[in-house]
Specification:
The complex is a heterodimer of chains A (about 260) and B (about 240). Chain A is an alpha/beta fold. Chain A folds into 2 domains: about 1-90 and about 170-258, P-loop containing nucleotide triphosphate hydrolases (Rossmann fold); about 105-170. Chain A contains 10 helices and 10 strands. Chain B contains 7 helices and 9 strands; from the N terminus they run E-E-E-H-E-E-H-E-H-H-H-E-H-E-H-E. Chain B is an alpha/beta fold and about 240 residues long. Chain B has a 5-stranded parallel sheet, with helices on both faces. Chain B has a 4-stranded antiparallel sheet with strand order 2-1-4-5, covered by helices on one side. The longest helix of chain B is centred in the C-terminal third of the chain and has 16 residues, at about 185-200. Classes of the chains: A alpha/beta (about 260), B alpha/beta (about 240). The interface of A and B includes residues 1, 221, 234, 235 and 242 of A.
């Protein structure tokens, strides 16, 4: 086990006007760990994720990241250009709506290749070959390489977004409800894919979901949020099998058995 | 031999907030020390807290107080209140658990479910798969099922996939919750044989074995788990 966290989050707070979206959130994320953030709609999960990923500036607190290129950096004071470089090279972000994470006007191959070019790849043949490999890894037929994602189903778009994010071999991936809004069979395929990729690439990830089944399958640790605050945190199976807080007990008791 | 698992003062209760913060005491001041080659059978009436104790020992349930010291690698590590990554590392390398039910993962074939813990520990995929197939074969799962996801398997088949998954790594400490519960006599004997092999090879085992023949065949001693006394004023008959 390493002794340096990848992400150090301290007292992150974000308000919208007088309303608190998230309040005093602190945690360390360790290399290889997948942290789930669960809670119902409006609990502040996505706002927190956006603050962690540098997409939103918190009103208070700090997020520090142990980068491969330059050691520990404070994410929010970074210049826009440096933060963009970080998000293109060492981080990934998987949106719930794949259309927000893809360029819908260019081909699937270009969507994957773009990330590679952003980190310096220039050899067209190699970029195309890597893009093809990744289409295979996310189980998209290889003859769809030159099709635009507008012609893809929702599940295919989501898999393409995952390929676009992981092709540059990020160390840390943020995911916002990656299987939200998809049919259960499509969801199972994506969960299976993510489970394999996270384990094989030794990724660290922060995953926002309201689905406790998804959380159990993919995450090592959980934070339960209610009204912008973390009310309970711990090992995933511990939180789900022996919930301590009244809100967590209510969430776990609300799962419909199949 | 010095104990590889040492429990002292272990106390556990559940607080049910939906029932007006009802407190349900389950374990009080449990002590246990177990050395390599020993198999301790937990014995007690239904509701006495045997499964709860086993889940506490796996870090699946939190404890109110007490200590669970585990010999992990070359160190003694405290499991009670450990950080998630410490608990996960202990589970990866030291502590195996056979629960009563298999948690099936959509789309993942039985052989991969069994091989996974070995691969996570660094075994080559092909080698891990060979070991998985060997174990599945020993446990009487027909080869035509190996490449199928176990969601459609019978209860007994799922149970044996579960056992294979927990035995593919030579964990120094094994926790077994009714490992033969849904098995017929022939398959039960296969599981008993595997448990005895692990015990004789030096694993320290704590288990719940409802079947007394199984218990007699594998255990080296008994630990009585007694139901806790309810505090004055607590309702009777609501114990989990």
């Amino acid at each position: 086990m390493t002794d340096t966290p990848l992400l150090l989050v301290r007292d992150v707070t974000k308000r919208f006007g007088g309303r608190i979206a998230c309040c005093d959130v602190s945690f360390d994320l360790w290399p290889g760990e997948v942290l789930g953030i669960v809670g119902e709609s409006g609990s502040g999960k996505t706002t927190l994720l956006n603050c962690l990923a540098g997409r939103m500036t918190p009103d208070g607190g700090s997020v520090a990241y142990d980068s491969a290129s330059s050691g520990l950096v404070d994410v929010h004071p970074l210049s826009e250009a440096r933060r963009r470089l970080l998000t293109r090279t060492e981080w990934g972000f998987v949106n719930q709506d794949a259309r927000e994470g893809l360029r819908m006007g260019v081909s699937a191959g270009a969507n994957i290749g773009e990330r590679l070019m952003a980190i310096g790849a220039r050899h067209y043949g190699e970029i195309r070959q890597t893009a093809t490999d990744w289409l295979g890894r996310v189980e998209i037929e290889l003859d769809r390489l030159d099709d635009r994602p507008t012609a893809f189903s929702g599940g295919m778009r989501q898999r393409l977004q995952i390929a676009r994010n992981l092709v540059s071999q990020p160390r840390l991936v943020f995911m916002d409800e990656p299987t939200g809004g998809l049919d259960v069979s499509v969801q199972a395929r994506i969960l299976d894919l993510l489970r394999g990729l996270v384990a094989n690439l030794n990724l660290s990830a922060v995953l926002v979901t309201h689905d406790l089944g998804v959380a159990r399958l993919l995450t090592h640790r959980l934070m339960v949020m209610q009204g912008g605050r973390v009310v309970e945190a711990g090992l995933t199976d511990q939180v789900l099998d022996d919930p301590q807080h009244a809100y967590t007990q209510m969430l776990v008791a609300s799962i419909l058995p199949v | 031999m010095s104990p590889v698992l040492r429990v002292s003062g272990l106390t556990k209760s559940f607080i049910v907030h939906a029932q007006g913060d009802l407190a349900l005491p389950v374990l009080r001041d449990v002590a246990l020390a177990i050395s390599p080659g020993e198999c301790v059978a937990l014995v007690g009436p239904s509701g006495a807290g045997k499964s709860t104790l086993l889940r506490c020992l796996y870090g699946n349930y939190r404890v109110d107080s007490g200590s669970i010291q585990i010999h992990h690698g070359s160190a003694r590590v405290e499991l009670a209140g450990a950080e998630p990554r410490v608990t996960l590392d202990i589970r990866r390398r030291t502590l195996g658990f056979v629960s009563q039910f298999l948690r099936v993962i959509p789309r993942v074939p039985a052989v991969d479910i069994v091989a996974e813990p070995a691969i996570r520990l660094g075994a080559a995929e092909a080698e891990a798969r060979r070991r998985a197939e060997f174990l599945l074969g020993m446990l009487g799962i027909p080869p035509r099922l190996w490449s199928l996801p176990p969601a459609t398997f019978s209860g007994g088949e799922q149970q044996r996939v579960n056992i294979a998954r927990s035995l593919i790594v030579d964990y120094p400490i094994l926790l077994l919750d009714e490992p033969t519960a849904s098995l017929d006599a022939a398959n039960c004997n296969g599981v008993v044989e595997l448990i005895r092999q692990r015990r004789d090879a030096g694993a320290a085992i704590v288990g719940i074995f409802h079947d007394t023949a199984v218990r007699d065949a594998v255990s080296t001693r008994i630990l009585d788990v007694v139901p806790p006394r309810f505090p004055p004023g607590a309702p009777v008959g609501v114990q989990p």
